[in-house]
Amino acid sequence: MEFKREFSFYQKIIDRELKKFFNKLKFLEIKNPLIRQEISLLKKFCLSPGKRLRPILAIIAFQAVSSPPTRSVRAGWLKNIFLPILSPELYHNYTLIHDDIYDEDIIRRGEPTPHFLLQRWFEKRYGLIPYSGNLYKNSRSRFGVVAGFIGGKILRALVNLPIFQFKISLGKKIKILKLFEELDISYNFGQASDLFFEKENKITERDYFKMVNYKTGELFKASVLLGAILGGVTQSQRKVLKNYAENIAYVFQIKDDLLDLSIGGEKGRGVGSDIREGKKTLLLISALKKANQKQKKRISQIIGKKKATPEEIKEITNLYYDLGTVELCHEIARQKMKKAINTLKKAQPKLNTEPQKFFEELANFMFERKQ
After folding, report:
1. 219-270, pLDDT tens digit by residue?
2. Max CA distance (Å), the chain
């Protein structure tokens, strides 16, 4: 099956299974209006259009290490893992909800973020109640942030449900649950690193890649390992798949940094959002290494400026191009892509041919993606 068609095929399966998962959920407390609103928003958020990269990684990893059946029974063979591969997608959406609160973003995928919608819900129900607290500017923002975090925590709790419901050996369940417990630590380390980097000026490329591995790489690894564990992975295959996942995570994040510079990037948060938030992207780190004192001063004046004008965003973008950091980041991403592809060939026993080819094309897709 041609790559894009196969990718779309899996996306549709995952969308269908996610919908079935949420439709079957039953909660003890359904009369509370806020809880109803939280569940409704979570369902809508998770079912909104997305790449579904993480569950697709799990599906392909499962096929890569399993004994492949004949084509006539392939659909039934894959159907056996549709439930647990939802877990990394649920986890991913949980992190997005919390990320948007950390970054104070009100738009995600072109739509209002859950915590912002919860602010609207509060204001519609209660109005602008006078409030004086130590952390929040008004009762509306306090409610949105707190309710948003609660929604994220509910979703994080749901991550384990598909694993508990799936009929596999206790040993495999423990291994998979351990993946997500370790992932929790890494994700929070990544968030802490991101927060620390905001005001630090001496952030290195090594610091950047460690942070990317914490925030993106570990979830990619957990996704491929989930599928691989279900498929009966060997130690050699496990090592190869982890290396592959780490390198495509680097490609994915560097490309994300680059997409922030262009209107066609369609990150859903507007051009230059990383610049306004003061994110220590690879572009910024590389630019500061090459810039002269005058350029560094100008960068420091604009980076992290929440109300930076389009002209100022354009100024920083032009600097990135003039200093050669855009080209440099493209080349680093290309090298990481090649490394990801080459590492697949080292598995013992070899990965199954078609899934390996899909992984190779997926690495290239990460590099070439426009959104």
Report:
1. 999 999 999 999 999 999 999 999 999 999 999 999 999 999 875 444 555 7
2. 66
Boundaries of every domain in the chain:
3-365
Closest residue by Cα to residue 54 from 223, 179, 214 = 223
Query: Cα separation of 340 and 312, whole Å?
Result: 36
For residue 149, CA distances in Å to 138, 154, 156, 269, 354 come to 17, 9, 10, 20, 41
pLDDT tens-digit profile of 135-175?
Answer: 888 999 999 999 999 999 999 999 999 999 998 899 999 99
Q: How far is CA 315 from the centre of its chain?
A: 29
Name the CA radius of gyration of the chain, rounded.
Answer: 22
- The closest of 188, 201, 244, 237 to 220, measured between CA atoms, is 244
Residues 264 and 270: their CA atoms lie apart, in Å, by: 10
- Of 3.60.21.10, 3.10.20.30, 1.10.10.10, 1.10.600.10, the CATH number of 3-365 is 1.10.600.10
Positions of E strands within the chain: 107-108, 111-112
112 secondary structure, DSSP code: E
Tell me if 149 sits within 8 A of 113, measured CB to CB. no
